[in-house]
Amino acid sequence: MRLHDFKPLFLGCRHSALISQIHAVMVSSGLLSHGNSISQLISSYAKAGDLESAHKLFDKIPLRRVDSWNAMIIAYSKSECPVEVVNVYNQMVLEGVKPDSSTFTVALKACMILQDLEKGEEIWEKVVECGYENDVFVGSSVLNMYAKCGNMDKAIVVFEKMQRRDIVCWTTMITGFVQSGKGKEAVDLYRWMQREGMVGDGVVMLGLMQASANIADTKLGLSVHGYMIRRALPMDVNMLTSLVDMYAKNGELEIATRVFRKMPYRNTVSWSALISGFAQNGLAVDALQLLIEMQVSGFTPDVASLVSALLACSHVVSLKLGRSIHGYVARKVIMDQVLSTALIDMYAKCGLISCARSLYDHMSSKDLICWNTIIACYGIHGHGREALTLFQQMKHKIEPDHATFAALLSALSHSGLVEEGRHWFDVMVNEYKIKPSEKHYACLVDLLARAGEVEEAKELIISMETKPGLAVWVALLSGCHKHKKLLIGELAANRVLELIPENAGTYVLVANFFAAAKMWDEAAVVRKVMKKAGMKKVPGYSGVEVNGRHHAFLMGDTSHPQYEQIIRLLCNLENEMKAMGYVPKTEFVLQNLEEEVKVKMLCNHSERLAIAFGLLNTTPGTRLLITKNLRVCGDCHEVTKFISVIVKREIIVRDVKRFHHFKDGICSCGDYW
DNA sequence: TTAGGGTTAG
């Protein structure tokens, strides 16, 4: 038998036992001394999953040439054993064997997987020493190693020095920038690539699609789509899924849906991409409908689609659906950390913080995001102390990041824990060396200003290294409004106007501040600006889930079939409340109307309609969960306290910022919000 | 014989 007679045998062979037989024949016919055949045998053992035999054979070779080393290294790489890849590489260098292109490529990939930048750089030195720095395979591997280890600065240095760059090198850099959140740099690099006369392929387009979503540039996405059609690039399921994802992330749900509907064969990921698109854009009902359609079409929802669906449940407070997803997940035994965290978030956002907590307590291991989530959940429920306790436990187990402190500071701010806020902001900067972001500043400014410490809040804003944005000035202004601090308030109001807010509510705050300060001209100017920009106050909207169905109420909505009953109940309640000492707070009606009309308007507030509907359609004692798209109105807040006493019910209101738990005439926020 | 790619919680 000659050597090449074995080739077809190797190619088709997937069983370790068979390979051993071939191995034996080769030994007896004296062919194993041939280097190529040994490498092939090693690869065959590896392909059959028998790395032990592969390594045993490797150990027996008296004079190991580079092919044998490579066969072993590639075998470990294919079996996803990066540690072993590096070990064999080390041994090879130690024995004085000169690595080649394949060795370096695979070894660098292993460092990338291990996120071992130090070892990767050591290998790169060896690459230069052996004269392989101009090899495009090795080059793109080192670029990828730097990129995936989060070091684009070093990647670009290597890239600029490269003498030859093929399409893979360019792609590596483009996707590297995209995945480190630098979409603009990715697009710039693509333009450079075009100037060099390179033609982008499908993988480059995938990178650009992600860049488009990254920098919210729909036009870029559309041009990528057009390019793919013009050049007739193959549109496989991955390509089309990426298009769906790109359009969805850019908020173009109609186009995303159109691409999705036209797909000849969809997979689980395509479904997930669109479901998450709907959920992220607040189109919760569409997201949940699509999840059902996905199952009807014979697809089993995976973690990604379930997580997105849970996010949608939180949006519309669909506790019933959220619970059924929980049940599904538990039955199918697909619970993992991501899903558990999403469930915790869902229960908390649906008002059931205790359910969230018990799920959290039962988790065997908790990652950073899980801790951040539970801290944030306690924050929005106004349990600042509990959030702080959890944070204290967390910091012994896992290193907190910027998001942890954002969640903690916001929790402290919801609970008015001023001293703690100052302290932990300080700890974040000085001990954890985390540079405070706009969000961190906004939380602390909010906390200080609401407590009346507007001077300190102003100084904090002035101390910011970056230009203060809208969030901090708005926080300062609302504190000044509350405490009637006119001088600093005026400063804040002017800064807010300079930054040209897009939110009508912000203008209303500025106008109200000027009005309260009797600066009528300024107030009028603000109202005029609003009118000119065509801005209208967002209409108040509340929702309540009754028997698993979501019912929505707009302010003053008379069209509801039960409207008569709702109003009658509200009138009866009002009479009882008045007997208990309630006086309507008509200052919350910000229009110039007769007192009597104002009172009537308060009665038509959407949260009141939702509460009354909930009371009418649930059995006595049932807890109600109300959602509101704006902050809860001050008068409704009083009214809900009274109602909780009269009807002996727990009423939970989730407004746009936080939760209010009303029970026995008291709100969990302690009237501080 | 070795390099680049899609969805997912705060």
Could you list the spans in which at least 5 consecutive residues all have pLDDT below 50? none
Strand content is under 5%
Rg measurement, Å? 32 Å
Strand ordering within the main sheet: 2-1-3-4-5-6
Keywords:
673 residues, mainly alpha, 6-stranded mixed beta sheet, DNA-binding
3D architecture notes:
This is DYW domain-containing protein. It comes from Anisodus tanguticus. GO terms for molecular function: RNA binding; zinc ion binding. It holds the Pfam family DYW_deaminase. Residues 581-673 form the DYW domain. With 673 residues, the chain is mainly α. The protein is built from 36 helices and 6 strands. Strands 2-1-3-4-5-6 form a 6-stranded mixed β-sheet, with helices on one face. β5 (659-663) and β6 (666-667) form a beta hairpin. α4 runs antiparallel to α5 and α24 packs antiparallel against α25 (402-415). The termini are far apart. The protein binds one DNA strand of 10 nucleotides through α5, α7, α9, α11 and α13.
Give the topology:
Blueprint: H1 7-12, H2 16-28, H3 35-47, H4 51-60, H5 66-78, H6 82-94, H7 101-114, H8 117-129, H9 136-148, H10 152-161, H11 167-179, H12 183-195, H13 202-214, H14 218-230, H15 237-249, H16 253-262, H17 268-280, H18 284-296, H19 303-316, H20 319-332, H21 337-349, H22 353-361, H23 368-380, H24 384-397, H25 402-415, H26 418-430, H27 438-450, H28 454-462, H29 470-483, H30 486-498, H31 504-516, H32 520-532, E1 541-546, E2 549-554, H33 563-579, H34 595-603, H35 606-617, E3 624-628, H36 634-646, E4 651-654, E5 659-663, E6 666-667
Helix pairs in contact: 3-4, 3-5, 4-5, 5-6, 5-7, 6-7, 7-8, 7-9, 8-9, 9-10, 9-11, 10-11, 11-12, 11-13, 12-13, 13-14, 13-15, 15-16, 15-17, 16-17, 17-18, 17-19, 18-19, 19-20, 19-21, 20-21, 21-22, 21-23, 22-23, 23-24, 23-25, 24-25, 25-26, 25-27, 26-27, 27-28, 27-29, 28-29, 29-30, 29-31, ...
The chain binds one DNA strand of 10 nucleotides through helix 5, helix 7, helix 9, helix 11 and helix 13.
